[in-house]
Amino acid sequence: MEKLIITACLTGAEVTREIQPNLPITPDEIAEAAYEAWKAGASIVHVHARKADGTPTQDMEVYREIKEKIARKCDVIFQPSTGGAVWHSKEERIQPVYLKPEMASLSTGTCNFGPDVFMNTEEYIETFAGIMKENGVKPEIEIFERGMIDNALKLVKKGLLAMPIHFDFVMGVPGAIPGEARDLVYLANSIPAGCTWTVAGIGRAELPLAVMAIVMGGHVRVGFEDNVFYSKGVLAESNAQLVARIARISKECGREVATPAEARKILSMGQ
Known about the structure:
This protein is of the alpha/beta class. Helices cover 35% and strands 20% of the residues. The two termini are 22 Å apart.
């Protein structure tokens, strides 16, 4: 079995300091959280930028500062979000890709997102994929429903996305696919052979789905974007604490954790 790739989703766009007092907000705090997550076993950091007051932003210059500060600390793979917050425009959302990061997230469909709607029209998807291709950025395809896999495969047919694809199954968002074991098996069995996948379980689904992914040969995403608790009613101390638990469980199951260099090879990056 391949080594396990752990992604740390450090901030998200919805979590606030009122919800999680340890949330990193400034570029310095996000860079330090990335460094601590890397030391704990993360090989990718998924980043949503924030303004000084904590408001989500897709400003390219803020992402640039975060990217540069992380790079000075470690070789973790920097993966900015192109989802942003639900109110960000298409033009705002794509800004971080022009920094030419190694990876960026790419959602391939519209879905309910709690009381909101996460909008990804066919035009959005194709535009984002085209810009990523032009800038040499490997997309991580975010899947909130089964049909989004088919949308990604359409991009392959149109020459906008290259195989093998790396999928991120985001599960347990209210209004989208549930975070049940059967649903993870369904999604994992629905992608083409040779592709890789990560699971991002939301809230209480995070740990059970992570353990499933470890034994199924998939990969794992954890962090404050998805879940602010370490156990029921107990807030996590840091993103690194959540990463360290997954690294420990994986090693106890006999599966080693990938370094960033090993993750790049597993994900066929730079090919």
